[in-house]
Amino acid sequence: MDHCCREIRGEFTGASSPSTSSPGVASTAIPQPMEGLRDPVPPPFLSKTYDLIEDASTNHIVSWSRGNNSFIVWDPQAFSSSLLP
């Protein structure tokens, strides 16, 4: 089988195992939310990312978009070397 034609299975909870599915047949399992998504507190990485973007002193590196519904990394090198660590 060509390397490009392999199917990937089991990427979400409830996925059928390779031994029980037939090649080329779609799984009928319904994806389920990951554990912890319904917690009342956001995961730490979301809080830390929000704090980085919200900090006005880092606006030359990363800031909110005009619509405040996404963020823009203006300087990827500085973002990865000084803010992420």
TrEMBL record:
Cellular component annotations (GO), alphabetically ordered: nucleus
Keyword Nucleus on entry: yes
Region of interest: Disordered: 9-41
Keyword ATP-binding on entry: no
Biased amino acid composition, Low complexity: 13-29
MF-aspect GO terms: DNA-binding transcription factor activity; RNA polymerase II cis-regulatory region sequence-specific DNA binding
Record keywords, A-Z: DNA-binding, Nucleus, Stress response
GO process annotations (BP): cellular response to heat; regulation of transcription by RNA polymerase II
Origin: domain of life: Eukaryota
Every HSF-type DNA-binding domain range: 45-85
Entries under InterPro entries matching the protein: HSF_DNA-bd, WH-like_DNA-bd_sf, WH_DNA-bd_sf
Annotated compartments: Nucleus
Pfam families: HSF_DNA-bind
The protein, known as: HSF-type DNA-binding domain-containing protein
Provenance organism: Salix viminalis (Common osier)
